[in-house]
Structure formats: structure tokens, C-alpha cells
Amino acid sequence: MTKEELKQNLDKINAELAGFSCQLIAVSKTKPIPLLQDAYALGIRVFGENKVQELVEKHEVLPKDISWHMIGHLQTNKVKYIAPFVSLIHSVDSFKLLKEINKRGKQNERKISCLLQIHIAEEETKFGLSKEEVIDILRSEEFAKMENVKVVGVMGMATHTENLEQVRSEFRGLKETFDELQQHYTAPNIDWQEVSMGMSGDYQIAAEEGSTMVRVGSSIFGARNYAK
Ligand SMILES: *Cc1c(COP(=O)(O)O)cnc(C)c1O
């Protein structure tokens, strides 16, 4: 992809998000470093990745004023590699993982911002907590004692479907869950701010339904090729 095409893609998305309080997370997974450098030159400072090793490698070579977001399923044994620098983990899908993030946050003397990933899609395959599981975590004594994580919101992925009304209703449900959690749960390690929802196929709908962060990959960087 040329720098010109990249700029056109970014301009288009930014124009569509104008007027919404919605941050664009540039999902650069599988994309080569020079393309990320082009995006950086065009002003992008927040990148999302879904593989720990790739995230670490890209963090090492790209400028230090980039915020790196982990958006994919995270194995507990890999938290240690990203704990020193990651800005936000979107994909906290178990209490076990949150405990590990807290432990590694402590070792690195930082408070790691996290989103609780909530299962909103029809498909069984997507990771995520149920609303009940989220509430169990937030009410637990163990969570109350965690000083090195900060829960700043929720994340969800809609069903992969052409039915955009279904997608809209799943996003609406996640926003309602967020509002409810925000009303009922306050603690020093909670700061309800973010609803991370919306990808290339549905970010406009997500923005309309109250998303504060859209995670957009292929609409910025082009289709991914996993085969090579
Ligand atoms: C890959 C990915 C995205 C971006 O997907 P696109 O359809 O390319 O925009 C968003 N969120 C998560 C969790 C992802 O893994």
C-alpha cells in the first residue's frame, strides 16, 4: 500500500468519526514495520496488536511516543512480556488473567489499564466474559485489593454477520451494560471511561451506539494475508 492510499483511508475514517468522541485504534497486526512507520508519519500514535511477540518486536523498533494496545486473546504466561510498556489491554477475558496482569504490574511498578471483554456475539467461538462473570469479579474481595490494575471500561466484538441491525443491537447491549456497571461499581481501581467496540465492517454503527474506541485494521492498512 502506498502512503497516498494510507492517507486516503485514514482521512475517510477520520471524517466518518468526526463529531463522535471516539478514538481510532490502528490495528496493525500482520502488517510490516515500514507501513506502521508511514502511519506514524501521518499522525497515528495508537496501534493495536493481537500477538504478544509481534507487539514486543514492533514496540522495540518504533518511536517511543506510541501507545500500544493489546487487543487479542492474551495467555497468562505471556503477560510478563508486555507488562513493562503496554498502554491498554482490551481483551481481559478471565479473572485469572486480570490477577496475572496485576502481579506483573506490581513487578513493573505500574498500574496497567484494562478493559473487561464481554461476550456479545451469537457465535460461541469469541472470547469474553458474561455480564454475571464481570459482576462477580468487580464484587470480589480479591479484586478490591488489586492495586496494579485499573479497569477503565469494556470491550466487545459483534457477531460476524451481514445483518447490521443485529450488530447494532449487540453494540447497544454492550453500551447498556457499560452504563449499568458505571452506575453500580466504584472503587479506586475502577475508572469507567471506555467502550471499545467497532472494527472495519461496523465502526460507524459502533460510533453511533456510543463506542469510545474503534479498533480498525483492514480499512486502514488493507486486507491481511495470513497465508504468507
Ligand atoms: C483484527 C482485529 C480487529 C480489526 O479487524 P478489522 O476487521 O481488520 O478492522 C479488531 N479487534 C480485534 C480484537 C481484532 O483481533
TrEMBL record:
Keyword Coiled coil: yes
Highest taxon above the source species: Bacteria
Cofactor(s) annotated in UniProt: pyridoxal 5'-phosphate
GO MF annotations, alphabetized: pyridoxal phosphate binding
Record's keyword annotation contains Coiled coil: yes
N-terminal signal peptide: none
A Pfam family of this chain: Ala_racemase_N
Keywords from the UniProt entry: Coiled coil, Pyridoxal phosphate
Alanine racemase N-terminal domain sequence ranges: 4-224
Entries under InterPro entries matching the protein: Ala_racemase_N, PLP-binding_barrel, PyrdxlP_homeostasis
Classification via HAMAP family: PLP_homeostasis
Record PANTHER family: PROLINE SYNTHETASE CO-TRANSCRIBED BACTERIAL HOMOLOG PROTEIN, PYRIDOXAL PHOSPHATE HOMEOSTASIS PROTEIN
Its biological purpose: Pyridoxal 5'-phosphate (PLP)-binding protein, which is involved in PLP homeostasis.
Family stated for the protein in its record: Belongs to the pyridoxal phosphate-binding protein YggS/PROSC family.
Record's protein name: Pyridoxal phosphate homeostasis protein
